[in-house]
Design goal:
- The protein is mainly α.
- About 75% of the residues lie in helices and about 0% in strands.
- The chain has one domain (about 1-485).
- A two-stranded antiparallel sheet has the order 1-2.
- A hairpin with a 3-residue loop joins strand 1 (about 60) and strand 2.
- The radius of gyration is 22 Å and the shape is globular.
Length: about 475
């Protein structure tokens, strides 16, 4: 019976692994972009539907490495939905790519598998496996257009920057884990409090190990001062990969980081609390201030993501003084809203770009409202939601953060959140104003061209989610309250 439960609860990971193998074998014997992309989408969708057809036994600890519960399933499903969206955006984007495209979908599948493992991790070993599966795949995905002679960006530079800095962050994380293991002799997240009590409480080695792990997670989440790679990589990577970085990668790392912090009671230590508070405040202010200076929309979204992860850190810090369940509920809802907003925003950029040229500067968006009303409507909805305007998902998400911060009496961080949000309102409205301006168009107008069905589907689904979560968030809130009750 125990063995059957193990197979059932690991079925989503098994399906992802099998799909990755099928995509790999197909690409090896049949070089066909459409077939490989179709198999990728089908495999991801089949993995997503696994627990609709087979009812899992929750919660279930699949060995000591993975914990399958409502929380991990929420994030793993979110990750797979994001991967499906990216695959649909990638097909039209890479149709003009001079080199073979099939390998991209193999990398997408392995990265998604790593992200799901991260979301389900309850042990440092599985956390490292997931991080490296995701990271190694991303190195190649970021630099994927390097051999395209017509590519106008700097994918190799972006790939090398991410490779070097991500490897450094992984090394720091691994060293921090080694310090923890040397001090308490365990690698399971939920075993840390009892092991720490057995050795007489935290010492300098333990605190240093925790801070190094936090630093590694902060790099993956683009938190100040470990954010420096973000704008360059966002700009240099192909648009679908940037969308993947902004959504799937962040969601996976946030899921495992939140579980680790809550399970290990890391917020009980003043040093950890002080570092997280500094990161949150600096990310909210610096991310928004630097976004004001940008003329490239991908870089603007990069700095915006730094600020939004700073907002998310507020509710994680609030767990030191409020219930864990409220912190998990608030974090999950805001991550969901940020996920759909980012995917919709990058879908708009992808719709007017391909592997030969990316139209991602403010000048490229001038007059977009008059050239393609539907595209501009999607982007305006995204920008208003990012700014936290009522009747959008972003408003409900920020309200969640603010109310949780008030309950936790985090007055300093709430002040930084208000200041950061005010700054953010300026550059979001500036981009909207740019789209409403008149512009003379010479040559081919990509924004006025017909968009592929897949891009339409992603934009429509994400825009509908933004409006639905802003107008009627009650069903999602109820779902998140159920999954958060386990904490």
């Amino acid at each position: 019976m125990q063995y059957n439960n193990l197979i059932i609860d690991l079925m989503q990971i098994i399906m992802l692994t099998a799909s990755a193998v099928v995509v790999m074998v197909t690409a090896a014997f049949k070089r066909n972009h459409a077939i490989v992309c179709g198999l990728t989408v089908f495999g991801l969708f089949a993995s997503l539907m696994t627990f609709v057809l087979i009812e899992p036994v929750l919660p279930f600890e699949a060995t000591q490495l993975l914990l399958i519960d409502e929380y991990s399933l929420f994030f793993s499903n979110l990750i797979i939905v994001g991967a499906i969206g990216v695959a649909l955006l990638a097909y039209p984007y890479f149709k003009t790519h001079e080199s073979p495209n099939e390998e991209f979908y193999i990398l997408l599948m392995t990265a998604t598998l790593g992200a799901v493992v991260l979301a389900c991790s309850s042990h440092f070993v599985s956390m490292l496996i997931g991080m490296e599966m995701l990271g190694v795949s991303l190195y190649a995905m970021i630099a994927y257009t390097v051999h395209d002679a017509k590519a106008s960006k700097f994918p190799l530079e972006a790939g090398i920057k991410y490779l070097i800095l991500s490897a450094l962050a992984s090394g720091i994380t691994l060293f921090g884990i080694a310090l923890l293991y040397a001090y308490i002799g365990t690698l399971g997240f939920d075993e840390i409090p009892s092991a720490l009590e057995a050795v007489g409480g935290p010492g300098p080695m333990f605190i240093m190990g925790v801070l190094m792990i936090v630093a590694g997670a902060a790099f993956k989440l683009s938190l100040v001062p470990l954010h420096i790679w973000t704008p360059d990589v966002y700009e240099g990577a192909p648009v679908p990969v940037t969308a993947y970085l902004a959504t799937v990668s962040k969601a996976a790392m946030l899921a495992v980081t939140l579980r680790l912090i809550l399970a290990s009671n890391a917020l009980e230590f003043n040093a950890v609390l002080a570092v997280l508070t500094f990161m949150a405040a600096a990310s909210m202010i610096l991310g928004n201030l630097l976004a004001v200076l940008q003329t490239n929309v991908k870089r603007l979204f990069a700095y915006s993501s730094i600020a939004h992860l700073g907002y998310l850190l507020v509710v994680i810090i609030a767990a030191a003084s409020v219930s864990n369940s409220l912190s998990v509920e608030s974090t999950s809802f805001y991550m969901l809203t940020y996920f759909v907003m980012s995917l919709a925003g990058f879908a708009v950029i992808s719709a007017i770009s391909d592997s030969t040229i990316e139209l991602d500067t403010l000048a490229d968006f001038r007059g977009l409202f008059w050239r393609n009303t539907s595209l501009s409507a999607v982007l305006i909805t995204v920008l208003l939601s990012l700014a936290g305007i009522p009747l959008t998902a972003g408003f409900i998400g920020k309200f969640y953060i603010f109310s949780t911060g008030v309950e936790g009496e985090l007055w300093f961080l709430l002040t930084m959140l208000i200041i950061g949000s005010a700054i953010g309102l300026y550059y979001y409205l500036r981009l909207i104003f740019t789209m409403l301006q008149n512009a003379d168009i010479s040559g081919e107008d990509r924004a006025a061209a017909a968009m592929p069905v897949g891009v339409h589907a992603v934009m429509l689904a994400m825009t509908a989610a933004i409006i639905y979560l802003g107008v009627y968030p009650t069903p999602m809130i109820s779902t998140l309250q159920n999954l958060a009750s386990a904490f």
